[in-house]
Amino acid sequence: MLTEEPPPGVTKRDYMVKLIYDELVSLLGGEQKRTVWPDRDKPYVVLLLGLQGSGKTTTAAKIARFYLKRSYKAGLIAADTFRPGAKEQLKQLGEKLGAPVYTSDGNSVRISVDGVSYLKRQGCNLIIIDTTGRHKEEEELLREMAVMNKEVGPDAVFLVLDGTIGQLAKPQAEAFSKVASIGFIVITKLDGTAKGGGAISATVATGAPIAFVGTGEGIDDLEVFDPPSFISRLLGLGDIKALAERVKDAQISEKRFEQIIGTGKLTLADFEYYIDSMDKMGSLAKFFSLLPGLSNVPPEMMRNAETDMRRWKTILNSMTKLEKVRPELLGASRVKRIAVGAGANTDEVKALLRRYETMKTQMKMMKRNRTLLRKLSSYKA
User: Fold this and answer.
1) What percent of the chain has pLDDT over 70?
2) If exposure means fewest CB atoms within 10 Å of the residue's CB, which of 7, 24, 124, 148 is most exposed?
3) How many Å apart are CA 127 and CA 202, to the nearest integer?
4) CA atoms within 13 A on the CB side of 366
5) Is 24 a member of any domain?
6) 142 in Cβ contact with 134 (< 8 Å)
């Protein structure tokens, strides 16, 4: 592989990125999505395991929400007897979902066994058990987990991993897999700058595929894991497919979106249009993570970005339609007029124009990456 020559028109660097991309996608199970579709005619019990603070309780509700939207009847069991407020948090989430939540006092194994029986009587065909967070060094809790796994006999064990855990993912995943057979992995907190690279080592350590990724704090911020999209983001290539879906959900003009991506050209009018649309597409960090060339934006650049955007909107409103389409017309006198009209100073207007120029450059990079991936996708090493 290392001695192969790239195909015509492709640089060695780009060819190497493609080879790494293909290998990592293959390592994570290929291009097929690993969605779990339980039989609706009989109860399917899911046991959630993971470290304390990995987001298990919220993930339990997100998974329930995912299946409730697909006509399953989901129920939740609050078996985290260690973290203060865990039981109440799950109850509140269950009420929000309209899903039954079993709670009780006592040890977590007894709660889980009784909870499964109770929710089966309620007619639930998907039962999710939220457990106490554990650490690979906490032998007593790990033994309790092994007992729970034996007594409950779940249909699947989901390991919940924090997307920011990094290299610690492998030893943690190995520790959990020694006491329970991990069926699937869920990666949480991929809504910011976290890349989730530890998910790769966790997959290798357990042999389990990744089923879902959490992309935000909202109850609907759970996505079916898509290896190509995940690796594209991990390598800084962005995720055009996910971005297109987000554009569609926000009811933004797909034709305009495709024209900008396809040509790599961006006017101030386009810039204004996407500032208006940004609120519909979630956080800036999440939006930028999908853009080739912008997926590695430092966290400090995200700070105060929403405030900046509101300021930019005011400045853009002071421009004429011609100026927005032909920014090259913006000389010193026009910049001064725009600043006065927006109640700003000329430095603020110039700062907006610099950001616009940066975005133009990134759009050209996006076009290049998109063309590269299309070219390489037709070539098999």
Assistant:
1) 70
2) 7
3) 25
4) 29
5) no
6) yes
